Amino acid sequence: MNKKQEIYDEAAKLFQEKGYGAASMRDLAERVHLKASSLYSHIRKKEEILEKICADLAVWFTEAMERVEEMEATPREKVRELLSFHIRTAMDDPTSITVFSDEWKHLEEPYRSQFLASRRDYEERFRRIIQAGVSKGEFRPIDPNIILYTLLSGIRWLHHKQRLPIPQHREGLEMQVIELLLEGLSKKNQ
Amino acid sequence: MNKKQEIYDEAAKLFQEKGYGAASMRDLAERVHLKASSLYSHIRKKEEILEKICADLAVWFTEAMERVEEMEATPREKVRELLSFHIRTAMDDPTSITVFSDEWKHLEEPYRSQFLASRRDYEERFRRIIQAGVSKGEFRPIDPNIILYTLLSGIRWLHHKQRLPIPQHREGLEMQVIELLLEGLSKKNQ
DNA sequence: TTTGTACCCGAACAAGCGTTCGTACTTAAT
DNA sequence: ATTAAGTACGAACGCTTGTTCGGGTACAAA
């Protein structure tokens, strides 16, 4: 129906599979049953596709952060909510997430700087929630930066393992990852 | 002194900064004060460099795994030892680790398959240690695959943040990351 | 029926890529 | 002094890349 959207969707898959650099416009054209030159009736340039994928997901995460910040909840509940949102996004839209996580470096200026600024902002707000939890004694007294990056990074495998040896259904997987990150690997009281 | 080694070292840095695909042989040549054609007095082809970086690190990790497997220790101590090794490697050689983690996909066959097989083997042995810990009740009853990927992934930010806002010295940072992964974010008994 | 708009294509462009080739120059071994 | 090996270079090759251009077709509005 909407050819433009079809191009964007197929491009995301292609960027995920081969990486932005190795994905050629002729590859992409073939997937949407066009010739390369015809793509330019729908888009201005290749990088525009990357920009849109990254920008859309940045908005997606920023809006989630706003909702969480407005919650009446403890830092622990807020962190749990953010982790849950990240995990669900990774499972529902693994293609875009991969591009967002791994291919943003191919953005040209000024979009690259904009992207990084927006990511820094998101991380800063996440860090504030963590800092609050540490100050309250809800969290272990660990450097908030270390916590921030370890949590975010500890999740970054989900979108790669879409159909790999994880025999779980959504809720079970989400619960276990969150439990592991919040409560740790070691079993307590022993 | 040894020009070949200089090329390999500079190539690793270049691959890290721009990605394998975007790093051209002319870029690399300039960095070692040569012209592109002169590189081929020292190496056979571009991908050969990538092969060596990946293969060397694969050996590095496999040998560490062998030492850990031979330890007389609990699963918890073995996991702690492996995490410690990963973290130290990421901090001591962030350049190679980045290439090893992010650029291996550009390996051509049959090296790509070899690399993946070796990685699967490593993960399988790591998984066995985790499984032992779960069976003994030392670890939480979480799917060993989820534990494996979350632990390995939770560390994968260190090599990117070489000179970023982590004001820690080595031991402190290593201790805190391991504490966070093994004991969790939440403070106990409250 | 004419005009306009949206879409598609083949051909071609300039630029960049990894790599090869022929040829020098330097250095050490014979 | 002669040979051989090692290293460096400029030029060029064949290929792929993103993108442009001019011309074509389809279809709806005027």
Protein architecture, described:
- The structure is a homodimer of 190-residue chains.
- Chain A is 66% helix and 0% strand.
- With 190 residues, chain A is an all-alpha fold.
- At the A-B interface, helix 7 and helix 8 of A face helix 7 and helix 8 of B.
- Chain A binds a DNA duplex (30 and 30 nucleotides) through loops.
Query: Kindly state the mean pLDDT of chain A as a whole number?
Result: 93
Number of strands of chain A: 0
Please outline the major beta sheet of chain A. Answer: none
Shape of chain A, please? Answer: elongated
Tell me the number of structural domains of chain A. Answer: 2
List the helices and strands and how they pair.
Two copies of one chain form a homodimer.
Chain A: H1 3-18, H2 25-31, H3 46-70, H4 75-92, H5 94-103, H6 111-135, H7 144-154, H8 170-183
Helix pairs in contact in A: 1-2, 1-5, 3-4, 3-5, 3-6, 4-5, 4-6, 4-8, 6-7
Chain A binds a DNA duplex (30 and 30 nucleotides) through loops.
Structural key phrases:
homodimer; 190 residues; mainly alpha; Tetracycline Repressor, domain 2; 66% helix; 0% strand; DNA-binding
Quick gist of this model?
Chain A has 190 residues and is mainly α.
